[in-house]
Structure formats: C-alpha cells, structure tokens
Amino acid sequence: xxxxxxxxxxxxxxxxxxxxxxxxxxxxxxxxxxxxxxxxxxxxxxxxxxxxxxxxxxxxxxxxxxxxxxxxxxxxxxxxxxxxxxxxxxxxxxxxxxxxxxxxxxxxxxxxxxxxxxxxxxxxxxxxxxxxxxxxxxxxxxxxxxxxxxxxxxxxxxxxxxxxxxxxxxxxxxxxxxxxxxxxxxxxxxxxxxxxxxxxxxxxxxxxxxxxxxxxxxxxxxxxxxxxxxxxxxxxxxxxxxxxxxxxxxxxxxxxxxxxxxxxxxxxxxxxxxxxxxxxxxxxx
Amino acid sequence: xxxxxxxxxxxxxxxxxxxxxxxxxxxxxxxxxxxxxxxxxxxxxxxxxxxxxxxxxxxxxxxxxxxxxxxxxxxxxxxxxxxxxxxxxxxxxxxxxxxxxxxxxxxxxxxxxxxxxxxxxxxxxxxxxxxxxxxxxxxxxxxxxxxxxxxxxxxxxxxxxxxxxxxxxxxxxxxxxxxxxxxxxxxxxxxxxxxxxxxxxxxxxxxxxxxxxxxxxxxxxxxxxxxxxxxxxxxxxxxxxxxxxxxxxxxxxxxxxxxxxxxxxxxxxxxxxxxxxxxxxxxxxxxxxxxxxxxxxxxxxxxxxxxxxxxxxxxxxxxxxxxxxxxxxxx
Lengths: 285, 331
Known about the structure:
heterodimer, A: mainly alpha, 2 strands, 75% helix, globular, B: mainly alpha, ABC transporter involved in vitamin B12 uptake, BtuC, two-stranded antiparallel ribbon, 16 helices, 4 strands, 71% helix
C-alpha cells in the first residue's frame, strides 16, 4: 500500500513536469529559443492562483483566470522581447531570459513579499481516501493527476490530429519550408510561446495547494524540466512524456530510499542517459 | 584570428592604477576592489570556455564553490591553515570535478550543453544544500584565514585588507598572463580553431574532445583560485556560492565586458560589481535598494539586446588599428 501511494505521487509529479517541459521543449524545438524564464511562469501561475483564490474565495475561478493572465503575459513578452531573440545565439537568449527571471522574482517580492503562503484546497476535494488503517491518499492529488492527463491528451490531440498541430510540427522540423508554404510563422510562434507559458502557469496554479507558493519555486522546477528535456530530446513531446514520468519516479524513489540525497537521483539518471544517448531518448542521432 | 588583446602601454597603465588603488585608504573600497579582482579571475576563467572555445557553460559556479568549500572544510577551527597546502588542494578538487563533469557534458553541444552544465552544477548545489556534509543551507564559517609563509616569514598577512588586496592582484596578474600565453600557444590556437569550425578541426585530425576537456579542466582550476580567494575574503561559505544565479552572474560579466577578450572579462567584472553596488546602495537609490535585482534584470535585458559585444566591443576598432600599426606591442 505504501508503494502504491508513492507510485501515485510519482505519476502526479511526473505529469506536472510534463505540462512544464512540453511547453519548454516545443518553444525550443520550434523557435530555437532556450527560455530560462519558463519556470517564472510556473511561479506566476501559482502566485496568481494564491492571490485570486484569496480575492474571490474560489480556487475554481482562480485557476482558469490565472492561466489566462499567464497566457496574456506570455504573449506580451513574446511580441516585445522574445521575438527579437530568434536569430540570436543561445548565449544571448540565456542571458536575456536570466534577466527576465531577476525581474519576475523581484516583482514577486515587491507584490507578495518573501513569505511562504499556503493555498487552501476547495472543500469539495479536501478529503482523503483511506487505504489502510493508517495510510490514506488525498483526493486533490488524484484530481491533479486527472487534470494533467486530460491536458496531456488534449495536447497530443492538437499536435497530432489538427491542422494547427500540423503547422506546429512543420515549423518544428523546418521553419523556412513551413513559412514558404504559407504558414504565418510570427503568429504561430507567438501562440506557441503564449500557450507554452500558459501551460506552465496552469501547472503552477494546480500545484499551488500541494506545494504552497514560495520564492524561487519556479527556478527549482525549471532545472528539473531542463533535465527532462535533455533526457527526452529537444522538440519531442513523446520524449518529454517518458522522461517526465521517469524523473517523477526517480525523484519519488530517491525520497523513499534516502531523503537527503533524493535530489541527486534525478541528475544520476541524466548522467546515465548522456552516456547512452547524448541526443535524448526520443531523438535519432 | 588572433585574439584582441590590450597593447602593452595600456596594460601597464591599468596595472599601475590597480596597484595604487589601496592608497585611497578606505577599507570599504579596498575590500570592494579585492572583490572585483576576485570576480575578474572568475570571469577570466569562464571566458576561456565561452569566448575562446565556444563552450557556453552555465554551471561555472560549481568549481568556484567547490574550491571555496574545500578551504572551509579543511581549515582547522582555531588555527590558520597554510596557503601552500590548501590552495593546491582547492584547485585540484575543482579541476577534478571539472574533469568528471566535463567527461559527461562535453558529449553534448549547443543548447544541450547549456542545460546539462546547469543541471550538474545544480546537483552539486543540492549536495551542499540538502546534506550535512558542508553545514547544509546554513553554510560554514572560516574563523581564521589561511597563512602565507615563505621560509618562516609572512610576506603577506591575509587578515589585513590591503595586503589581501595585493595577494588577489598578484593572482589576477598570474592568471591573466597564463591565459594570454595559453591562447597564443598551439593549445590556444587549437581552441580558437574549434571555436570557429569544429568539423574542420576534427577532419584535420585534432582530438576535439581532449582539447575541450583540457580547456574545461583548466577553466575549472582557475575558477577554483577565485573561489578559494572569495572564501578567504568573506570567511564564510554557503550553498548560494555555487547556485545557478552565481553562474548566470559570471556569464553576464563575460558578456558585459565583451567575450573573447581577456581585458573584457576584467572590465565586465568591474562594471557588474560596481553596478550592483550602486543599485543596492540606499544612499543612491533610496528605498528601492532592496529591490536592486529589478533594475539589474532590466539592465541585463537592455544591454544584451542593444550591445551584444559588450563594453570591450566598443574599443575593438581602435585596438585593431593600433595592433596593425604596432605589431610588436601586442606579443
């Protein structure tokens, strides 16, 4: 039973990572932009959920509104700053998005202070399913797992079954060719970036009641997402899915076996994959 | 392409200015000066990778921090350690870490390399942050600074800010000179070749991986010197010293000064530390001082968008013209 709980936790964490890293990997695969500030959108989503939930008293309202606001911020940022980076070297992209992280963190500090804030789980989901006499599983975590699964399925459907998805895949494999075939590339880029950041914001908003909101939360998860993208292979949604679940499992197992060293387990998995397939599991060399 | 270097007269003037700086007498400014010089050594070591080999490492703070932790962990609590033992050990550990990490990360290129160097540095960060090995998130104090003795004499007392400043200045000169020699040596020319066209260098028959690993280890060891000196100066280490923000900061210094120019790294460190001091000084910016990162972040965005070649880039045309007229003054 104990291991069932850990497995559920691993899947839930893995799916959350997938929401974040799918945006990251698409933004990189399509636009060639490495976005360090992706984690900041996770933080923005979480803080918006915290603030809106306190304002309206209703998390069900806070999550969608927060996600839409993050979408807007992402779109605004793409048109003003990120779109200037497409033809620049990765080095400059890293530095500018590093600067953006400093700005986001400091704005967070000005607006919300540096304290850790809890977000209350809505009463409808605020109970646990008893598994044995002593162990039980919180329903909200199951809810998060379910929602992430739905979003992931939706993402797969959009990318592999729709016309927009076809354009995205075309842009991913050959930008110039897609443009010459009549795809409005700047518009497509803006939308992919905005939706990617909205996914991150959404992940932050639904995770807020579990992890609570705290300074630097975005950066912590960003680096794990980089590991996911490296393992999965850049631009690959399938790779991101497999890698997210693997990292979720490695992290949870690590916490069970040796809590203090759990953070290292994730990086060891990455080191092994680098030896085996430096280009990621889903990409061909 | 020969790297752009400062002509001798200019280098000499800069050196005299740096040597005379402690005459200003204020302990605060001398300590600030030492901090700038330490960061200059750190930025120089990174520039070997970013500017001269084309390896954008986003985890360079790992080697800086490892060396700092080495000093903190092996210093006896109530007596002074000796520089002769602790400095080589700190550099050695930083170099060894660079060797092991380099073995993994150099299998990747481009954007993967950026992410993987960041991830490995973060792994070391979590080792020091989560485990009791290095005092956890609280860090460790170094109560007594190490001693520098030559044949029973103490030429420089590290407890004195002025003498510490000169020690750091000596190290900066040594590292600068070493890198300059290295870049003009066959090894450095090979690195420049890898930077310009890796495929061609490979087809000529250069063992690319070995050269890159060599550069990675040297950069790690030199970052170790900077980390060791930083630990000496502050008498305190905590996990923030190898956090990724530190890696981002030193990368920004390299870009700010203009990468691929040795004097650029020094200029970048100087500008960045001064900017940070100004932006976080309540006397200058008032109540906004606690939020200096907002201004710093905005400045970074603007500078990188507008001046990708950094401050050093401004002087390139003049320097190239000078080196054309005085070919002997450069070497």
